[in-house]
Each structure stands twice: as structure tokens, then as C-alpha cells.
Amino acid sequence: MTDPKIIVALDYPDAAAAQQLVARLDPALCRLKVGKELFTAEGPGFVSSLVDQGYGVFLDLKFHDIPNTVAKACAAASRLGVWMLNVHASGGRAMMNAAREAVEQAAKPPMLIAVTVLTSMNEATLHELGVSSPLQEHVLRLASLTQACGLDGVVCSAQEAPLLRTKLGQDFCLVTPGIRPADASLDDQNRVLTPAAALLQGSSYLVIGRPITKAADPLAALRSITEEIKGL
Length: 232
Ligand SMILES: O=C(O)c1cc(=O)[nH]c(=O)n1[C@@H]1O[C@H](COP(=O)(O)O)[C@@H](O)[C@H]1O
Fold this sequence. Notes:
Helix content is 42%, strand content 16%. By secondary structure, it is α/β, with parallel strands linked by helices. It has a single domain, classed as Aldolase class I (TIM Barrel). The longest helix is centred in the middle third of the chain and has 14 residues, at 135-148. The chain is globular. The two termini are 18 Å apart. The mean pLDDT is 96. Pathway: Pyrimidine metabolism; UMP biosynthesis via de novo pathway; UMP from orotate: step 2/2. One of its GO terms (biological process) is 'de novo' pyrimidine nucleobase biosynthetic process.
């Protein structure tokens, strides 16, 4: 069983558009991330169809609510047969414990990870929310709490991966967006790393959207990145 390190972000408005891309990819080379836009438009049926096509699916719904509601949502997501799902670490200890307990009871438990600080946020946006610590310190605090609650890992910027890898050990899963091959457009991402650099910094899995989804030949783009990170 292969363990592809690339997770392709399916940021599409509907199943037809997403499926056009999916048909051109290869489940041996990547997993797929379904987020709020596609899930809200198409629901669990499309997620199940991706699973049936042999893809590992990261259901990126970033649950954040009271513990009971998040636990029930995680149980429902687990029943879809997804490979990974996530919650917001800022939902706190009781919420994350409830999420983990719900996932553990699934017939085939998915990996459960937590979002620390979104890559779209900076210190100024944190201060506005009353968080006065430096950004990296806050990321580390949320990631440490996530680990203490027994979750499998976090979503973070690849730039935070070295700190988290050092402090939280080799077995903690670091999922990092903001990845750009050396020759790719930055789009709206600011703090980016190349696929190879992100893995060398300690990332476990790379979330990659437009460099693959907008490529003239998405499978060729996926193969080229796979080649770049071979052996890392
Ligand atoms: O949770 C995410 O996946 C995520 C978290 C974050 O902090 N930053 C971030 O860019 N993402 C997602 O990662 C993907 C990046 O897509 P591209 O910028 O096209 O490679 C998008 O689906 C974003 O929603």
C-alpha cells in the first residue's frame, strides 16, 4: 500500500468540475482534500464516490463547536470511510477529546488532526482576537494541546514545521499547505515553500491546490512533484 505525501485540494464549486480533474489523477500518487465549498454543494455522496474510486480523502471541514456536536460530526464523517478529518484546535481540550473518542469508535478510524493558526492569519489578526503571544508560540501551544489530547497531528504552515517537529517528535503528523514548486505562481499564498523544502523542514503531507489543479496537464504536474520528493 503506497502512502502518497501529496494531498490535492479539490477547491471546486461542484462535483462535475471536481470529477473532471479527479479522472485525470492517480490514487497511487495523491490523496484528495474536500473542503467546505465542495462539501456544502455536493454533500457526502461525492465524498463516498471518491472513496469508491480508490482515493484517500481528507475531509477538511474544520469542525469547531461544543464537544457533543463535534463528536457527532466526527462520527458521521468517519462513517464515510475518509482517510483524514480535522477540527480547530482552538475549540479546546474537551472538544478535541470528544472528537478523538468519537473517531476511535469508528469501524475504520480516520486520522484526526487539528488546525492551529491558519496561514491567512498573522500576528496582527491574532492580537485583534486577544492573543498577545507571538504567532509561533501560539501555534506551538495549540499543537501541544492537540498532541496532549491524543490527536494524530496538525495543519500548520511549513515554516512552523521545524519548531513543531523538534518539540513534538517524529510521530506527530504535520500537514502543510502553502506549497509551490519553484517555477509556480504564488497566487494568493504568501509564505510558501517548495515541496522538497517542506518535507526537509519536517512536513508529513503536502496540501497542494492550484499548481496541480490549474496545470495544463495535472497528472504531469503531479508526477513531476512526486519525482521531486522521491526518497524524502
Ligand atoms: O486547511 C487547509 O487546507 C488550509 C489551511 C491554511 O492555513 N491555509 C491553506 O491554504 N489551506 C488550504 O490549502 C489549499 C491551498 O491551495 P493552493 O494555494 O491552491 O495550493 C486550499 O484548499 C486552502 O484552503
